[in-house]
Specification:
Layout (H helix, E strand, L loop, with lengths): L5 E7 L6 E7 L6 E4 L5 E3 L11 E2 L6 E2 L11 H8 L15 H18 L3 H17 L3 H21 L9 H14 L3 H13 L7 H22 L2
Helix pairs in contact: 2-3, 3-4, 4-5, 5-6, 5-7, 6-7
Length: 230
């Protein structure tokens, strides 16, 4: 009998404290063919792990990822009840998801994370993944919209250093700001932040990120040279 790429997992809702089922992808079925310059993983087959990062509570509608904290500031749960739960129409997210269901789940998590005042680095990650999903649909307008949102939240994260207790480093945050700026046509910020990443090579560590920054910096220079000769 063939083993399914998916398995069911019980998740405890951070908001209403009830349990609900969700699908996860078995790690041996996650096969990345290559990664794009903004770390978008391109999977080798039809199993897309990105679709299942967001947990959507079937009871209250609160949607979250493993990057969300358990803490709710005073009054936040009342706001979630008003803006999310009271308007919640039951959706079935516990089965296999289409790209459109994944987008819906990420948008719910983006809204919940914004209401809950999650760290900018977490909100940026949600917006970035929405950009990737829209890219897979070749919807350039929505892709750019969410890349800009991600870039702006990464800039805020960099300013406040709210990434410090996460897996993201200052170098990676700066690289993401630069690469997303390049992709949305903000060459000034792209140049500024790629330069900052490259300056970090003397301190050692994260050599791959520095090399990626050098490659993207070279592309910008080539494009500027090309534009000058048109």
């Amino acid at each position: 009998m063939d083993i399914s790429p998916y398995y069911e997992k019980q998740i405890h809702c951070l908001n209403c404290k009830k349990d609900f089922p969700t699908l996860k992808v078995r790690s041996k079925f996650i096969k990345v063919d290559h990664t794009e310059t903004d770390f978008h993983p391109i999977y080798a087959d039809d199993v897309n792990a990105l679709y299942y990062n967001v947990y959507v509570c079937e009871h209250c509608g609160f949607s979250f990822t493993e990057d969300f904290t358990k803490y709710f500031a005073p009054g936040i749960q009342d706001e979630i009840h008003t803006q999310i739960t009271k308007k919640w129409v039951h959706h079935d997210f516990k089965g296999e998801r289409t790209v459109f269901q994944a987008i819906q789940a990420y948008k719910l998590a983006f809204l919940c994370g914004t209401i809950k005042k999650e760290k900018n680095v977490a909100i940026a990650g949600l917006a970035l993944r929405l950009a990737w999903l829209y890219r897979s649909l070749k919807n350039g307008g929505q892709e750019e919209r969410f890349m800009k949102l991600a870039r702006d939240h990464y800039m805020e994260s960099y300013s406040t250093e709210d990434y410090s207790s996460t897996q993201m480093s200052a170098v990676r945050i700066m690289y993401m700001i630069a690469e997303l700026s390049r992709r949305i046509g903000d060459i000034e910020n792209a140049t500024r932040f790629f330069s900052r990443v490259i300056e970090k090579q003397s301190s050692g560590g994260e050599a791959k990120i520095v090399d990626m920054a050098k490659e993207q910096w070279a592309i910008i220079r080539e494009e500027k040279e090309h534009a000058r000769h048109i």
